[in-house]
Amino acid sequence: MKIEFNKIPTFSQLRESVQALTADTFEEVALQVFHYQAIHNPIYREYLSYLRVNPDQIQRLSAIPFLPIGFFKHHQVLTGTPAIRTVFESSGTTGSQTSRHLVADLGWYDNISTEIFEQTYGSLKDFHLLALLPSYLERNNSSLVYMVQQFIAKTHSPVSGFFLHNVDELLNVFRKQAYQSDGRKVILWGVTFALLDLAESKNDLSFLRELPKLMVMETGGMKGRRREMLREEVHAELTEAFGVKSIHSEYGMTELLSQSYSKGEGIFDTSRTMRILLRDTNDPFSVVDAPQSGMRYGGINVVDLGNLDSCSFIETQDLGRFVGDSSSQFEVIGRFDNSDIRGCNLLI
Fold first, then answer.
1. Is residue 33 part of a domain?
2. Which of 234, 208, 235, 249 is nearest to 344 (CA)?
3. Which residues, other chains included, contact 87 with Cβ-Cβ below 8 Å and sequence gap of 6+?
4. Contact yes or no for 72/255 (Cβ under 8 A)
5. CATH number, residue 250
6. pLDDT at residue 77 tops 80
7. pLDDT per residue over 259-316, tens digit each?
8. How far apart are CA 124 and CA 118, in angstroms?
9. At 86, which helix (H) or strand (E)?
10. 3-state DSSP of 239-250
């Protein structure tokens, strides 16, 4: 597909293209978004200039330069001059510089995240959602808390809600659902250290086996509260404690408006607005978009077409691999040395 640089769509046209996005049109729309942001995002434009990249010569997805995620810590990564509705901020560790994602349209984020969840798991009205996210609830600018808050509202469930440190109240809700099942599925959505704390507590959790539709969703994150553990260790302990066959996971971060979900074994399915590419760990500009290209392991680059107001092309500090013969499934296998501990993705 030949993208003519002098015929870049308007912002409203790009939004319409993303809303109508299909797997077959993903690359075409992504290239249109790239050429738009190469003009209207000052930080990204300057970065491309330093790389001596002529945007007009970029005609395939794997050739797009990805913005290192650290730019969100030190710059305002913004496309155009929209009115900012809120600023999501990463958790970080004590004393560390946090990432800031300027968001102009919360309704856009709400629609994208809801669509991704419901396409993966079904209508939120079929769930009770119990959120155990203490470290995120202790601050007021978490994108994860905002997203789960919207999900809770859309369940229209009287028992859905957040639980900070009130574990007894959480377990009482579980008991009522175990003995008064209304047919809905129950999600326990928690940060990893809090789920492990509950699993290892002296509370009797055996009654959870009376909840055949229980689903445990972990977002990752020890927050310095516990030793780092292998994913297999974490999931083995949680499946045993909660009596479930598998642990679900969410892959998302402050700098992204789209998410991917895993239904077990740490294998994530890319969502409609997100695609994963891999870069050579020694050459960040050597990028592949499919396992057939020869590179199955590498640094994770994310195309997030939800990020129209910021930057849709993010070079993360996560290491990953493609699963199977396509790029539609991936696994997170670690972090680059000396990179910040990611608070909202799968622990390795």
1. no
2. 249
3. 100, 101, 102, 103, 141
4. yes
5. 3.40.50
6. yes
7. 999 999 999 999 999 999 999 999 999 999 998 877 889 999 999 999 999 999 999 9
8. 7
9. strand 86-89
10. HHHHCCCCCEEE
Of the candidates 205, 212, 193, the residue with the CA atom closest to the CA atom of residue 240: 205
Which residues constitute the domain of residue 201?
A: 65-348
Is 232 inside any structural domain?
yes
Q: How far apart are alpha carbons 269 and 323 in whole angstroms?
A: 10
Please give the tally of structural domains in the chain: 1
Does residue 72 form part of some domain? yes
Q: Global pTM?
A: 0.92
Q: What angle do CA 303, 38, 86 make, to 5 degrees?
A: 65
In angstroms, the CA 216 to CA 218 distance is 7
User: From CA 147, how far away is CA 324, in angstroms rounded?
Assistant: 30
Does residue 3 sit within a domain? Answer: no
CB atoms within 10 A of CB 290: 16
| Residues 6 or more apart in contact with residue 306 via CB below 8 angstroms | 18, 108, 109, 112, 256, 257, 258, 273, 274, 312
Beta-strand runs (E) in 93-153: 100-103, 127-132
